[in-house]
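Thanks for the sequence, V.! I ran Lactoylglutathione lyase right away. Repeating your input here for the record:
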Amino acid sequence: MHRMHLHVTVPDLGASIVFYETLFGAAPAVVKDDYAKWMLDDPRVNFAISQRHGNLGVDHIGIQTDTSEELQALASRLKAAGAQTFDQEATTCCYARSDKSWVTDPAGVRWETFHTFGEATTYGEDPSVLPEAANPVVACCGSASAPEPAAACC
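Predicted structure:
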């Protein structure tokens, strides 16, 4: 089964946690000094916020899979459609260990498909970028407008 993922960069983590707790009627499943995440079932979404980047608003959209096989199927569909993906294996991102496949859609929106298989004690540092042809952006939740790769994760 898949779960929609949204990652939003916020200016004030504390105020944003209060707002989203009220909106969702639930406390976050994960809270760190620079990050919070809700794993909601109604709607089925992995909603994350962080205070790690300068550009406020939606950082990227994604689809979280329950298995590595589901992730491979999604990435294969994107590649079969001619999309250039940026694949990451066993990366640390957003206090989690995940395999990922990134792609930029025709409108320039960054999409992350991923399977999380463990927790991590750090947010993660990942200076990798998507290939030039895929509209260069920083992988793992970095700012799309950054002139150089930045250390960041979702």
